[in-house]
TrEMBL record:
Residue span, AB hydrolase-1 domain: 55-237
Protein EC: 3.1.1.93, 3.1.2.22
Descriptive protein name: Palmitoyl-protein thioesterase ABHD10, mitochondrial
Gene Ontology molecular functions: mycophenolic acid acyl-glucuronide esterase activity; palmitoyl-(protein) hydrolase activity
InterPro entries assigned: AB_hydrolase_1 (IPR000073), AB_hydrolase_fold (IPR029058), ABHD10_acyl-thioesterase (IPR052382)
Protein keywords: Hydrolase, Transit peptide
Reactions that this protein is recorded to catalyse: S-hexadecanoyl-L-cysteinyl-[protein] + H2O = L-cysteinyl-[protein] + hexadecanoate + H(+); mycophenolic acid O-acyl-beta-D-glucuronide + H2O = mycophenolate + D-glucuronate + H(+)
Top-rank taxon, per record: Bacteria
Pfam families referenced in this protein's UniProt entry, alphabetically: Abhydrolase_6
Function: Acts as an acyl-protein thioesterase that hydrolyzes fatty acids from acylated residues in proteins. Regulates the mitochondrial S-depalmitoylation of the nucleophilic active site residue of peroxiredoxin-5/PRDX5, a key antioxidant protein, therefore modulating mitochondrial antioxidant ability. Also catalyzes the deglucuronidation of mycophenolic acid acyl-glucuronide, an active metabolite of the immunosuppressant drug mycophenolate.
């Protein structure tokens, strides 16, 4: 069962936290950030939790407001409010250095956190990271009826392969995303960044990973393209690749701390 972060403002947020033990106390905490309409019970989050626990490494997974076990309505959420959810979790539920692992929209949120908390975030792993996905959503994914609904009703119901029910996309969500877009300028981020991207991803073009890397000129960025990988990146070999990046970045942090 999850615990809940209670805030004076904003819905309560569900989370599961595993404390570091033994040799794992020398390693940074791993914080997993899920994707759009995903929750913390997904394969990638739970698999990485188990692997981290075996190492004794601290691990934290959570649900944004309106997602999973957290309170709030999805339709009232925005990129900025979900960023603020993640910041609250980072600030109040973790100590010391943190490696962020962000999936899809979570990769966008993770980048925003790294820029907001450069003193806390020591590494970032993006899994089919999708910064700025709201920017071209209407032009590329909406038909005429959806555009009309967005214009006249403030929302559109968009069919998806991930749910039998359509996703309700609001104008507020799109406007919020446009205010925090990242790919239109360079960013002064100097942490190691690992981007894993499937080339058979039907949701995020694989070139997005290279666009992210180009906007982080001061960071140690490595892009790993998975030729047969899809958007989920949840096969055993994908999970091994993700954990390998976590172990690499975590070991580097531990070595620096020991010097």
């Amino acid at each position: 069962m999850p615990d809940f972060l209670i805030r004076s403002q904003g819905p309560r947020l569900a989370y599961v936290r595993t404390a570091a033990q033994g040799p794992g106390t020398a390693l940074p905490t791993v914080m997993f950030l899920g994707g759009f309409r995903s929750d913390m019970t997904g394969t990638k989050a739970t698999d990485l939790e188990v692997r981290s626990s075996i190492r004794g490494q601290g691990f934290l997974r959570f649900d944004y407001s309106g997602h999973g076990a957290s309170a709030g309505r999805f339709e009232e959420g925005t990129i900025e409010s979900w960023r603020d959810d993640a910041l609250a979790v980072l600030d109040r539920l973790t100590d010391g250095p943190v490696v962020l692992v962000g999936s899809s929209m979570g990769g966008w949120i993770a980048l925003l956190l790294a820029l907001a908390r450069p003193d806390r975030v020591c590494g970032l792993i993006g899994l089919a990271a999708a910064p700025d996905f709201t920017r071209n959503m209407v032009e590329e994914s909406f038909d005429d009826a959806m555009r009309l609904s967005l214009q006249t009703r403030g929302f559109a119901d968009v069919p998806t392969d991930y749910s039998p029910e359509p996703y309700r996309i609001t104008q507020t969500l799109i406007d919020s995303g446009n205010r925090v877009c990242l790919l239109d300028r360079d960013h002064d981020l100097s942490i190691p960044v690992r981007l894993i991207q499937g080339q058979r991803d039907a949701d995020v073009p694989w070139e997005t990973a290279e666009r992210i890397a180009a906007r982080l000129p001061h960071a140690d960025v490595r892009v790993t393209l998975v030729p047969d990988g899809d958007h989920r990146l949840s096969r055993p070999q994908d999970l091994d690749l993700i954990d390998g990046c976590v172990r690499e970045l975590s070991a580097a942090v531990a070595r620096r701390a020991a010097v």
